[in-house]
Amino acid sequence: MNDAHLRLACFELWGGNGNADHAVELPGLKGWVYSTPIEAGAGGGDVHYLSVCRQGLISRIVVADVAGHGSHASSMAENLRRVFQHHTDNWDQSALMRELNEAFHRESTASQFATATVLGFYRETGELLFSSAGHPPALWYRAQEKSWELLQDCTPYAVEIGGLPLGLIPGTAYSQTGVRLAAGDTLVLYTDGITEARDPSGSALGQRGLLDLASSFTPESPAKTCQNLLSALQIFRSGQPQHDDETMLVLQYIISGEA
Description:
Number of helices: 5
Shape: globular
Strand order of the largest sheet: 1-4-5-6-7-10
Strand content: 25-35%
Number of domains: 1
Structural class: alpha+beta
CATH topology: Phosphatase 2c, domain 1
CATH superfamily: PPM-type phosphatase domain
Oligomer: single chain
Order of helices and strands: EEEEEHHEEEEEEHHHE
């Protein structure tokens, strides 16, 4: 199981870098994905990717953000999605992160990079492995405790999981951290277009601001959770325009028979 060379049979179920606003489902997880590029009708730099491996035993989930805007960022996002398609079959998540970094470095132009959160979810145990390549931390609603937290704040190794963005430096090492989800737990992955949204005074929402918005309600369905967060974001903005691609992926752990 720890063999970095062991490969899995993986299949993409959902993914892209364009507009999205729909339900998604993986073994043990139901969810909702929302994505809107800053340029209407065009692809953006945000990428979401959801796949199943080993006949649904393991799911791999990625939310990534390619630096920049416009057609070049969109083209690089499409390249990054192909990188995910070709490499998420690596059993070992730290090795997977290294492969993603090396492959995107080969695909990208000078100084091009992408942040990413990569999850590995094991449906039978509820275990969640996560790695970050310079990406904002996910929100985690712990159903038993009835509380929201930043996922990185829940681990003793939070300082080690930040990682450098993909494509910057070949040979970068990435760590992985694990938590165990309980039934009803909810994860919210997002790109920095969400947390860099600004109010009329010019103040950015920030990660803690997003956490505060989430803490104002109890999650229901992933669709409702996504809707509530986006509605709260619009209230925060008070009419201020979108300045970046925005993506949000909400996932809820469902034990078989409880869906």
